[in-house]
């Protein structure tokens, strides 16, 4: 979800205004994902590196997160996503951790999965997986063993990665899970990324020929 800061700057507004609009767009796109009946979607909201931002920006982002989670719990929605917070949540305040636990619990009956990546980084996730496997005394480690010790345990591999804001890099996002993912890069800043843009990304994906390292037999 890249481009909140630039969206605000282009309007001569503070970065916080961009993050606020970013959360509004997150809500719009999450609703649209339910409409499309997407099985699993992951939003990269805050990376293990994002703590390096100025303290007031980090505090603002944390306040927006608290506001979002509190409102979610208050609204009692009929239609919603099943939340999972992926990342090392120990870095967050006890209040935020409690909200995460509650939202996960109260959304567990919904059908479509929404992962919100917070204090997430793939390198951190992989190191954690290897630590857990070592603690279990696991030998002859298989790719499946690694998958089952990631935050995304039980979820399918990534089909499509969409990055907004014109950047063409992965930035430590779902490195292991996206081994055979398709990539879609959009110049739109995240607050401007619309449901029509998501349709375009999905249409692009639907025209990709996915071989997963194999070959596709064609009749002569
Ligand atoms: C990316 O734009 C945005 C972030 C790193 C933070 C976004 C997270 C939140 C607003 C809180 C999360 C809460 C929910 C519920 C989604 P950027 O600041 O990197 O933009 P730029 O590239 O234009 O500077």
Give me the secondary-structure topology:
Layout: H1 4-9, H2 15-36, E1 40-47, H3 55-75, E2 81-86, H4 94-106, E3 112-120, H5 122-135, H6 143-147, E4 160-163, E5 182-185, H7 195-206
Parallel strand pairs: 1-3, 2-3, 4-5
Helix pairs in contact: 2-3, 3-4
Bound molecules: farnesyl diphosphate.
Describe this structure in words.
This protein is globular. It has helices at residues 4-9, 15-36, 55-75, 94-106, 122-135, 143-147, 195-206; strands spanning 40-47, 81-86, 112-120, 160-163, 182-185. The strands form two sheets. A three-stranded parallel sheet has the order 1-3-2. It has seven helices and five strands; from the N terminus they run H-H-E-H-E-H-E-H-H-E-E-H. Helix 2 packs parallel to helix 3 and helix 3 (55-75) packs parallel to helix 4. Strand 2, helix 4 and strand 3 form a beta-alpha-beta unit. It has 220 residues and is an alpha/beta fold. Farnesyl diphosphate is lined by residues 1-6, 19, 22-23, 26, 45-46, 50, 61, 64-65, 68, 165.
Structural class: alpha/beta
Are there runs of 5+ residues with pLDDT below 50, and where?
A: none
The profile of the biggest β sheet is: 3 strands, parallel
| Annotation field: number of helices | 7
Number of strands: 5
Report the helical percentage. Answer: 40-55%
Gyration radius, to the nearest Å?
Answer: 18 Å
N-to-C order of helices and strands: HHEHEHEHHEEH
Give a list of the ligands: farnesyl diphosphate
* Shape type: globular
Overall residue-averaged pLDDT value: 96
Share of β-strand residues? 5-15%
Spatial arrangement of strands, main beta sheet: 1-3-2
- The N- and C-terminal alpha carbons lie at a distance of 44 Å
């Amino acid at each position: 979800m890249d481009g909140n800061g630039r969206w605000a700057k282009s309007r001569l507004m503070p970065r916080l205004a961009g993050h606020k609009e970013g959360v509004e767009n997150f809500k719009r796109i999450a609703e649209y994902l339910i409409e499309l009946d997407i099985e699993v979607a992951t939003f990269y909201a805050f990376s293990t590196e994002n703590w390096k931002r100025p303290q007031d920006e980090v505090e603002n982002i944390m306040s927006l997160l608290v506001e979002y989670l509190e409102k979610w719990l208050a609204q009692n929605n009929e239609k919603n996503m099943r939340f999972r917070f992926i990342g090392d949540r120990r870095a967050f305040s006890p209040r935020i951790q409690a909200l995460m636990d509650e939202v996960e619990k109260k959304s567990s009956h919904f059908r479509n999965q929404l992962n919100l990546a917070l204090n997430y980084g793939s390198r951190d996730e992989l190191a954690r997986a290897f630590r857990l496997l070592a603690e279990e005394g696991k030998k002859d480690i298989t790719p499946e063993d690694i998958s089952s010790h990631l935050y995304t345990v039980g979820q399918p591999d990534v089909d499509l990665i969409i990055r907004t804001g014109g950047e063409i890099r992965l930035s430590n996002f779902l490195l292991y899970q996206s081994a055979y993912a398709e990539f879609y890069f959009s110049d739109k800043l995240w607050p401007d990324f619309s449901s029509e843009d998501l349709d375009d990304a999905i249409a692009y994906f639907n025209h990709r020929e996915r071989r997963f390292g194999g070959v596709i037999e064609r009749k002569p």
